[in-house]
Design goal:
The protein is an all-beta fold. It is built from no helices and 11 strands. The radius of gyration is 13 Å and the shape is globular.
């Protein structure tokens, strides 16, 4: 059974840093792409960052470029999102997604709240 579990969310002040972690089990993680998405109240879920399984190529939403860094540790089946210089507009539920072609798995999300 595949499980994707996020952790590391919380409430912080603007300008602070947070590290989100995503653990994936029940699959051959090293051949899955990984990524983070977020959804704020009343808004659509949006892409934040991704990292490919093969070359570890990363992509970022323009809104987080230069502040967030995605990484992965295949030995531990983990995907990370280092969030620096967070802003109130980063407040959302952050979801981890792992996928390979049309096969995808999502976590339940972790709440990030940034106060000004």
């Amino acid at each position: 059974q595949v499980q994707v579990v996020e952790s590391g969310g919380g409430s912080v002040q603007a300008g602070a840093s947070l590290l989100l972690s995503c653990s994936a089990s029940g699959l051959t993680f090293r051949v899955y792409d990984g990524g983070w998405f977020r959804q704020a109240p009343g808004k659509e879920r949006e892409f934040v960052a991704s990292i490919s399984w093969s070359t570890h190529t990363t992509e970022y939403a323009d809104s987080v470029k230069g502040r967030f860094t995605i990484s992965r540790d295949n030995a531990s089946n983990m995907v990370y999102l280092q969030m620096n210089s967070v802003k109130p507009e980063d407040s959302a539920i952050y979801y981890c997604r792992v996928w390979r072609g049309a096969l995808e798995y999502w976590g339940q999300g972790t709440q990030v709240t940034v106060s000004s």
